[in-house]
Amino acid sequence: MVAPPVSGQQDSTAVSFDLAGVVLAAGSGTRLAPLTLELPKAMCPVGGVPLIDRAIAHLSAVPTAATIEIAVNAHGSQRALIDHLDERVHLSIEDPDVLGTGGALARLSRWIDARPVCLVNADAVHDADLQAFVDSWDHERHHFLLAGTDEFAPGVRLCAVLMPARSLSTLVDDGRAVSVYDEIWKPAAAQQRVSVRRHDGACTWRRAPPGRDDVVTVDGVPMTRVAQALRECQGTVMADRLADAAGEAVRRGLVRRREAAGLLAEINTAA
């Protein structure tokens, strides 16, 4: 099972600084359908812990080298997530439209207040040591923690990214949905202002890389993250409505009938 790690011995030369931690959590979660017909994506459990709580725990473990405050973006329709996070973090509510990764950061720019940013996705589950990642940063380049690769490129599995202070100055909060990759990271890469730290440990993400299954292990049984999340919700949130939710996902076009049937078969086999 993937769990938030305990940081090891830290670099004694690390300098304390203020850091704005941001968890992106406003996505609709179509890849986790039909579960997300019942729960916001960031509330889906892995190992009994909601994805959003895992992300917050990772960021909260950083302050031995930095003073960190944490913000989470959410869509106004995600009431379960908003209520779950009430008064725990700074909440940025997007309504009526989701603003995308760049738009979410633009909306948070006043709260970020020119601090460096540590950005994570709520749906990335890994055992990387974020403190060591922060300690390895030069504070000048966009520093990426990537699973299984040393090269920054579209589609990489992102565990976290550190963005320099004032790097968001080009983003404008005008209500448009924009991509942080297109607006900031791609231009930075073209100017060779990016660096990468590789993580070769466990990492499950929103999609599996070509040629491998995206799996976690629960009680010694390997299964996909979707199947595990569905399994954990049986008898609780989903109860007997799992089949109904799968059927609704098919009707809405979120998953194909064969995929929905496969999910149900997998979860019943794993249970």
* Gap between N and C termini: 16 Å
- The low-pLDDT segments are 1-13, 207-213, 234-240
- The overall number of domains is 2
Global mean pLDDT: 79
Quick structural overview:
This protein is α/β, with parallel strands linked by helices. It has helices spanning 51-60, 79-85, 100-107, 109-112, 130-135, 180-190, 225-233, 242-251, 257-270, and strands at residues 18-24, 45-46, 49-50, 67-75, 90-94, 117-121, 125-126, 142-147, 158-163, 194-199, 203-204, 215-218, 221-224.
How is this structure best described in words?
By secondary structure, the chain is of the alpha/beta class. The protein has two domains: 18-204, Alpha-Beta Complex (Spore Coat Polysaccharide Biosynthesis Protein SpsA, Chain A), CATH 3.90.550; 215-270, no CATH class. It is 29% helix and 22% strand. It has helices spanning 51-60, 79-85, 100-107, 109-112, 130-135, 180-190, 225-233, 242-251, 257-270, and strands at 18-24, 45-46, 49-50, 67-75, 90-94, 117-121, 125-126, 142-147, 158-163, 194-199, 203-204, 215-218, 221-224. The strands form four sheets. It has a seven-stranded mixed sheet with strand order 5-4-1-6-9-8-10, sandwiched between helices. The chain has a two-stranded antiparallel sheet with strand order 2-3. Strands 7-11 form a two-stranded antiparallel ribbon. A hairpin with a 2-residue loop joins β12 (215-218) and β13 (221-224). α3 (100-107) packs across α6, α7 crosses α9 and α8 runs antiparallel to α9 (257-270). The radius of gyration is 19 Å and the shape is globular. Residues 1-13, 207-213 and 234-240 have low confidence and may be disordered.
